Amino acid sequence: MDADFERGAEYAARRDETDPLAHLADRFYDPEDEWYVDGNSLGLLSEDAEEALDRAVSEWRDLAIRGWTDADPPWFHYGERLGDRLAPLVGATPEEVVVANSTTVNIHTLIGTFYDRAEGSNIVVDELDFPTDHYAVRAQLRQRGADPDEALTVVESRDGRTIETEDVVAAMDDDTAIVFLPSVLYRSGQLLDVERITAAAHDRDILAGFDLAHSVGAVPHDLSAVGVDFAVWCSYKYLNAGPGAIAGLYVNERHFGETPALAGWWGHEKETQFEMNPTYTPAADAGAYQIGTVPVLSAAPLAGSLDVFADAGDATDDTDALLETGIEAVREKSLRLTEYLIFLVDERLPDCEVGTPRDAERRGGHVAVEHPEAYRVSEALKERGVVVDFRPPNVVRICPSPLYTGYEDVWQVVEQLRQVVENEEYERFEERGGGVT
């Protein structure tokens, strides 16, 4: 824990004054009279993303169908070009990354593809995964005649919050084909040890895949060097590309040449795609895992958002290759903000508990604040203008997204939370019903 942390708002203001990334917040549309700390669910719109979307609309208006060849970049190669720009954020070569589909569709095609070629019959997951991962994996097992109840090995949590690497490794056996885990647990914010899990899997001739939805754009990855076989992610959280924005995927180059389990014409080799041959010829790289036509208007905001990450790297004097993408600078600030948030919860909220690992190497970009009335607490916070979300059974997720959140924001959020809890303001709200949280 940072020994220099102090409790007062004046201290938070001083930290903001010396923050090299503070100026980036001016490029985001922050809802007026609110403290927005829900960027791990949906990132804010930036001027850069808005301009990129406007540019795509203008190209549609001015070029019409010629946009596929004459836009900047040409829409025909949009998925690949955006993949090139994303590759440094996940530690991959440009050929290993493509922007395509949705996260769940990417899970379907990658799990299906690699299960078909892997040794073994079981897939290792964990019980704290985001549900869509299990839905997709179970569906792919059923499609191949396997009983998911038998072929799915679920690693249990010891404390209901975290997953121990030792338990993941222990779950691997001679029948395991794939280990597929999140990089960061969506509820607690635990960052898993991707490198160690991948190494253990490969020692046993098991393929290792990861869902990076809650880490990409907040945590640097080194997928190629670590040897991860495949990965998926969304771009509407820390990448700030907008609701339902196009997703991304990574396939290690040693697996190039595989025919995807879900084949579609946009994954065909580009040189002969418009020859309209009845036989599918997959692209020679990760581009093969594109399925349908790239949704340009859902992809364009990502182009603008990546400009912000590039400028985050320029805000420092470090010339490290990763820092040039901004992801190292973003991670450094993210860790400071989450550590400060944990410090304030410990100091000022005796009725709340932190459910996120305190070790920086095991923490993603958000903090799980636990309270028995977490749902009603989250509703009371929203009434006060603090935008958070609730995850059952007892978690208020707070995300100080480093591109547009400062220390003073964190201090104010904790102050609002303190008043809600101490004054029991949550008692005025109904127990949880249905709907979005």
UniProtKB/TrEMBL annotation:
<dbReference type="InterPro" id="IPR010111">
    <property type="entry name" value="Kynureninase"/>
</dbReference>
<dbReference type="Pfam" id="PF22580">
    <property type="entry name" value="KYNU_C"/>
</dbReference>
<dbReference type="InterPro" id="IPR015422">
    <property type="entry name" value="PyrdxlP-dep_Trfase_small"/>
</dbReference>
<comment type="similarity">
    <text>Belongs to the kynureninase family.</text>
</comment>
<dbReference type="InterPro" id="IPR015424">
    <property type="entry name" value="PyrdxlP-dep_Trfase"/>
</dbReference>
<dbReference type="GO" id="GO:0030429">
    <property type="term" value="F:kynureninase activity"/>
</dbReference>
<keyword id="KW-0378">Hydrolase</keyword>
<comment type="subunit">
    <text>Homodimer.</text>
</comment>
<dbReference type="GO" id="GO:0019363">
    <property type="term" value="P:pyridine nucleotide biosynthetic process"/>
</dbReference>
<keyword id="KW-0663">Pyridoxal phosphate</keyword>
<comment type="pathway">
    <text>Amino-acid degradation; L-kynurenine degradation; L-alanine and anthranilate from L-kynurenine: step 1/1.</text>
</comment>
<comment type="pathway">
    <text>Cofactor biosynthesis; NAD(+) biosynthesis; quinolinate from L-kynurenine: step 2/3.</text>
</comment>
<comment type="function">
    <text>Catalyzes the cleavage of L-kynurenine (L-Kyn) and L-3-hydroxykynurenine (L-3OHKyn) into anthranilic acid (AA) and 3-hydroxyanthranilic acid (3-OHAA), respectively.</text>
</comment>
<keyword id="KW-0662">Pyridine nucleotide biosynthesis</keyword>
<protein>
    <recommendedName>
        <fullName>Kynureninase</fullName>
        <ecNumber>3.7.1.3</ecNumber>
    </recommendedName>
</protein>
<dbReference type="InterPro" id="IPR015421">
    <property type="entry name" value="PyrdxlP-dep_Trfase_major"/>
</dbReference>
